[in-house]
Amino acid sequence: ALRSTHAMESNQLKQFEQYCATLYTSPDAAERSAAEAALVQLSSTPEYLPQCQFVLDHSKYAYAQLVAANALKKLLVQSWNHLTPPQQLDFRNYTLSYLAQRGTSIEPFVSSNLVQIVATVTKLGWSSGEEHKAIVQEVSKFLHATTGHLVLGLQLLQQLVAEMNMAGNTRSLTQQRKVSASFRDTALFQILQIGLRTLQQLSTGAIPCSGDEEPRIREQSLSLCLSCLGFDFIGTTLDEASEEMGTVQVPSSWRSVMEEAATMQLFFDIYAASSAPISSKALEVLVLLASLRRSLFSSDDERQAFLGRLLRGTLHLLQSQHGLTEHENYHELCRLLARLKANYQLSELVQADCYREWISMVATFTIDSFKHWQWAANSVYYLLSLW
Hints:
Helix content is 71%, strand content 0%. The chain has 20 helices and no strands. The protein has helices at residues 10-25, 29-39, 49-58, 62-79, 85-102, 108-125, 130-133, 135-143, 147-165, 173-204, 213-229, 240-243, 255-259, 261-273, 278-289, 300-320, 327-343, 346-349, 355-371, 377-386.
């Protein structure tokens, strides 16, 4: 068993907690350096893995939990190939059960580090065993417990998508692409559907939650949908500069959900009912939907209907002016308008039944933006590319 074979004495734990307190709270730089030097030992060799778990299990001090979680992650990455497959799985299950039991009561900066461990370990173990690939089923248990666990479950899934999309924690670029493609084909669509379903259930009141919990669940679900739709589907690892020109290469198996009118309408409805940052995240999702590859659609008529819904949604937004005094919303709307121009031809835009009204409103919006260009300086670029 991995658990705490080299348990600390209670006085050692107190000393450890004291070092952590000094590291994070002392105003004296020399004291902080001395504490850091003492604590760095915990992440120096795999022999200290049980001590990391002991601190997490027995300390109630948040900074001690944070140092232990950071050390645990570092040691697991460094010593991964020296652990047996059962040990590797044990560490994942240990972290998941810790989050299930204590994740809603510990500080967010500790739980986010533990969430990161689950994602990293799952990626490292993805190619070596089916148990690691069953992560979505494991995390689904969080989604049906308390609302606090629901938020944690959504965070776990989002961190997993982000981890699979990053080049870190793999031996080579080839290995990264292999793991990323396998994850895309077996788990990503299921994760997107969890995000969409949670947003739909929130809008119908099917999830019982308090007033301050609802925005957290909504924002976390939107972040999850954004991570799924922004995934590097074809392994191109585009940089930030070229991302604006890209189309979103979602797999053909996603077609029915993408073409469904309710999918897009969900995000326009969330925008209308929210303020930033939730509203701007909803617009970010719409930017990605506006960038879906042409060949995804089952027919030209289906794509034209999709475009019509985008134009009607943005027209209503421009008419109501709802939320456009918030800078994030304003910026994302400019990005959305520019994407419509980049991804659709003028001949397709003019076919939409609301085109005349839409282009008139966009022209007025652009002129107003130029009049107040200092306020909208970063967004004007997108409006210029539109014309």
